[in-house]
Specification:
The chain is α/β, with parallel strands linked by helices and 404 residues long. The protein has helices at residues 9-14, 24-34, 74-86, 156-170, 204-228, 260-279, 301-305, 318-325, 357-368; strands spanning 2-5, 38-41, 44-46, 49-55, 59-65, 89-95, 98-104, 125-131, 134-139, 146-149, 175-181, 197-201, 241-247, 285-291, 309-312, 339-343, 347-351. 28% of the residues lie in helices and 24% in strands. It is elongated.
Amino acid sequence: MIEWLAIPCAMVAAALMPSAKMKDKDKIKKVFEVGKVGVKKGDDMKYPKLIKEITGEDYTTYLYSLPLGIPSKVMELLIPSLEDGLNKTVEYEFEDGLVKLHVFETELPKRWDYDTSLIRPGTWEVPIGKNHHGILYHDFDKYQHLLMGGVTRYGKTVCIKEIMNTLISNNPNDIDIYILDLKAGLEFYKYKVFPQVKEVACDVFESAKLLDKLTNELKQTEVFFRTKGWTNIVDTPIKKRTFILVDEGAELSPDIIKDKTAKKFAAFCQAALSEIARISGGLGYRLIYCTQYPTKQAVPQQVKINIVARLAFVCTSGVASEVILDERGAEKIPSIPGRAIYLVDKPKTIQVPYIDDKMIFKMNKEQNNHVTVHTKPSRTDVGDSGSSWHRENKTPPRNPQAKL
């Protein structure tokens, strides 16, 4: 009879951990034994077998084969015990039938400052973070949208600013940026002086007006693509991309807003953002949706399921982590500003680059001294009218797909 034995991770952590004089591979073996991560066959116990040890510059990778019947996911449960026992950062991956345990000699930096060497002109790639393997870039032409969340003051807004700054630096002539700053415009209204920032909405009413405009433009773009026989902007000669940045999406939740009139506008905004997430990627539109209240009410379902790339900062609970990542883990992130989990194919813990307003304005001034940005002479900011749209007794359409 073959029996897989495994005791709870908490019991492993509570057990006597290996001596500091032991080699790391012996400590790992001890953790396997204490945790009973093995298969019992008769009177024998078969534990994961060390196949190879690879030493890098500041890390060591241990390759293990697992006894038949033990899922690779068990390593995820053992990571806390391994890190406690080794007193080092440990990551794992399962590839080609082997478990790869990466044991790092150094910690991630608690702060990583942005610099101009991170720019990749002519691309839609932005540095999303740094981990033990190097710098990770997010390519908005490959993964068009990004969902971001976590508690306040841990780096979300700084990350949006860094992304915006890099995108402008990469393609100053070929980008339109629309911002929904639901923190009353306190973070992003100042950027409306940038020629690439077309409009800034500061409340739910201004957001509804802006999104009404964008969804109408989106339908016109669909017609244009259809007449050309195009399906994806990356396969066309069009260089321009349109980015829609939403900072604090929870303020657009009808379940959170109390004012009855505002609720209707909020419902329209969520419907419009859902439409953008569903169909706009191939047309050159990119959505970055951010909230400090990761709940089902704050993140519309259609927005979530149509965004592959996720970025989670510190979350207050496992449930909040699941809203952003579809799995737990962000609630265990250390309380370090800029520390996050980036998820595309698998979760990666990273340190997001830090940039301040002063550097952004300095870079933008230098950039725009050397380029010509084509803008319409009549360009105005949504907020310039003092949010008069909703005071004109206008109501949002029931369906954001307005007629052309």
